[in-house]
Amino acid sequence: MKPFAVALAALFASAAGAGSPPASTAGMGPPRGQPLSGAALDARTEDVGGLLRCPVCQGLSVADSPSTMARNMKAEVREKLAAGYDQEQILAYFERSYGEFVRLEPSLHGVNWVVWFGPILALLAGGAAIAWALKRTGRKASVDSSAPAADLPARDTLPGDEQLAAAVRRVRALAYGWPGGIPPKAAP
Amino acid sequence: MTTALTPGAGTPPQASRINRKVLIAGIAIVVPLLAVLVANLGRDPHTVRSPLVGRQAPPFSLVPVGGGRPVTLESLRGKPAVINFWATWCVPCFEEHAALTAAAKGLRDVQFLGIVYEDDEARTLEFVKQRGSAYPSLMDADGRVAIAYGVFGVPETFFIDGNGRIVEKYVGPLQRSTIAALVEQARGEGR
Amino acid sequence: MLPILGRTLILLALLAASAGAVTGFVTGKNPSPAGWTWTRRLAYAFAAFMVLANLTMEYALLTHDFSVSYVAHVGSRAVPTWVSIVSLWSSLEGSILFWGLVMGAYVAFATWRNADRHPEYMPYAVGVWLACGAFFSFLLAGPAQPFATVANPLADGPGPNPLLQNHYLMVIHPPFLYSGYVGMTIPFGLACAALLVGRLGNDFIRPLRNFLLLSWIFLTCAIVLGGWWAYEVLGWGGYWAWDPVENASFLPWLTATAALHSALLVERKGVLKAWTVILVLSTYLLTILGTFMTRSGVFNSVHSFTQSAIGPTILVFLAAALLFSLALLALRVDTLGADGRLETGPSRDVLFLVQNLLFVLFTFTVLLGTVFPLVVEAVRGVQMSVGRPYFDRMSVPIGVALLFVMGVGPALPWGRATPRQLRSALLPPLVGACLLGAVGLALGVRNPWTVLALFFGGYTAQVTLSEMFLPVRQRMRSHGEGLLEAFRQTQSRGRRRLGAYIVHAGAVVAIVAVAVSSTMGSSKEIQLRKGEATTLGAYTFTFVAAEKVVEPHRDSLLARVDVSKGGRSLGSLYPRMNQYESQREPIGSPAVRSSLTEDLYLSIHNIDTDAGTVGLLVLVNPMVTWIWIATGVMALGGLVALLPRLRSATAPARVAAPSAPIALGGSN
What we know:
The complex is a heterotrimer. By secondary structure, chain B is of the alpha/beta class. Chain B has helices at 20-40, 91-106, 121-131, 144-148, 176-190, and strands spanning 61-62, 71-72, 81-86, 111-116, 137-139, 156-160, 166-171. Chain B is built from 5 helices and 7 strands. In chain B, the strands form 2 sheets. Chain B has a 5-stranded mixed sheet with strand order 5-4-3-6-7, covered by helices on one side. Chain C is α+β, with helices and mostly antiparallel strands. Chain C has 23 helices and 10 strands. In chain C, the strands form 2 sheets. In chain C, strands 2, 3, 4, 5, 6 and 7 form a 6-stranded antiparallel sheet that branches. Chain C has a 4-stranded antiparallel sheet with strand order 1-10-9-8, covered by helices on one side. In chain C, helix 11 (244-269) runs antiparallel to helix 14 and helix 12 runs antiparallel to helix 13. The chains are: A mainly alpha, B alpha/beta, C alpha+beta.
């Protein structure tokens, strides 16, 4: 039954190709999918239309755009789905006239791998970095168990480095006129 | 607050030296990013090169404005063709139409064709009547041919050689000199 | 006359900013009271000149002085006064002038607030701000000159972009966006100062965080206002299309959100200082990259301004800022060592790291997708697209993971926890999770990601609410106070904490609303003749009439569509097509009937008043209103967390009151 339906659709498509709009199926080959109709056709039209870039509106997909061009393209997608062409065949058809530009989702080949797997690699690298940092902290913690310095009230504190602390005092003395860089209210 | 000025127990800052890891990671991000931005500077993203140039023109069969027998791409075989996508709502198309009409009158061995893009037949007929035309304009009611030719807007013009191969696609209004040059190219490659 | 005045003011601003940048850096290196005083004066002078330059432009716009090139470009005698006022930011040159105004205001405010604090950092910070200010002044003095003299001015101008007049949201969106974008200059300067000084103490993380939060609030509002505008105007029924310009505003928001969280760890634990500084620097650099994206014409976008010499100039500045940041980081980042350490077991600490990783991953993914077509163009010479399907596919798992972390993180205690503590912290919220998940399933949600979003949304909502009211409950128990009194007491003490959880509550609602609205909507395209009706779900739409309305600045075709639900009339909707004189394509104005549960959205494809036919796109979008409400809640939460800090900072003694570590760590 199935092959028969496909063959029938192909026959129909080629007949249609010979008739009124010969452009629409030129070079597409025989349909590779099942002819759709009804609600399934509506849903697939939206899906495939969502993967096609509307040429006149930049950014929006054929499924989203309200422009005439997008609606024409959507109608064509619908016809091709009804005739049994599959998603890849339809995308390839539009790609032949508009180039790779028309695909909103980069196809998986060549340099495009970067855009798909870059984020996954970044996730793995980031996870590894966190795990490594935690492990290092954990090891350090077991060696040195002194109280963390963050628990000190940090406002108006000075850096641990002697030289730097002296510099900060000098700056404060100059800027605020605090003698010795110590705020008056903090002085005993 | 009296003890506030006791030195914090922070790790003493290390002597100023370059953090190699940060530097390398930073360069790995910054340099390619800048290179890509510089490489694309001045490029107009709104003009997309047509992948159809050098390929066989997509076939069509369309009825001329005002009715008549359908014109097919097949029927143009053997001589160069100029296919101009246009519309009456497109202001730059007006002047171009005059240039194309003049060119069509001069170049008898070249088949000129207009394909009407997203426009009304009555309005187109009116326009052609008023301004005159030396070549047929075809109605592309559901935009299928425009889509097959990868049209983004109007005016766009395709130059096709005698074997039905697209030699060049021109975006924007054409001048007479450009038409002549591109027709010459189509003629040369058709031989 | 006005062009010369304007140009003089810009040059003076450039002069003040350049001089201030120099004195700032010199004073930072060799501290002196006079140097600091002069740096401040020059910062105020820069702000004053920017304000005056903007006032000059407003005066020129209002008096229709077409000898000023910008007025000749966007002005018109025909437009209402309010349009003349907002024309300041309607086009490229004016928007950069307005940028200068916002920058001046921020620099003056931040300088004034910290005039007698953080003396070792502030001169550097002001120096960095004014260096950025000098660049934008230079942009205004040269490539983006709005005050060029028009030799033979015309009597009238074309008026601003009709999109600006088409919807009020387009008027208020840019000021929010610039306040968010430009505001990131302040934390950038502070972070650079921390690197230059070689120290990031707890005292200094506060101004850094407060200004980051302030800009974050504006940016959050701006992003959603942009989406709302798209929803109300563009007519395709969505609010976010992952357009490069939309991404440009989203990228710094992501890193800023990450930085706000990591700054908390700096403050509480003394860790992640270098990382926080990197995030703050990245945020600013991404705003400049975003500015380049919108103003260079390199990116293929609906929203971008046209090509000009401004693009290359911004690119030079971006390169300079990138290299400066990179050099500064490489040389000084090791000075920002940790004072404390992180808990390594399952704890809130670790979840903060996971949160940061997810936000940075999100940033990386969006940036990669946005820039990738340019990479391919440069490498292969082929034009390609990375659009909504890609971004949706990538961002949905990250968004759901963030929702998960937002629930689990606050549920976990700081520091180490026993298995029993973990169980009692993590298990109860499963009630909320199952409840919301079940409600979703009962209402017909079938998309697995949406179900997951509802499940985690319920979990996070329960955690957020219980955390929000935990101090209240504790106080009611310990002090025997009533609910209201306890709430008043706790909220005045833990304002920041309360604010943070309000933001979280808003974020949960926003993510759930986005998930539901993008997967549970229904739509239909239909061609109707006068008197015909169509149904979608429980609604019936009847096309009653097509009318033509002529207004002074535009002609409109509108369709009257009566809507009823289950036989009960809901009134009429009037989707329209507005035709402006200066535009060929009409601009659609969809009609939206919003309610808390769902929006009815009608947009015209084509309309023929003579034949009495209309082509309509009819959509039912559930929960969209909740996105706008949730954003308001997030902004409110940000303000709750921010305002007491701004107020109390003027009375520093109260903030500096014994910040015992036990009090900090105990109640959370």
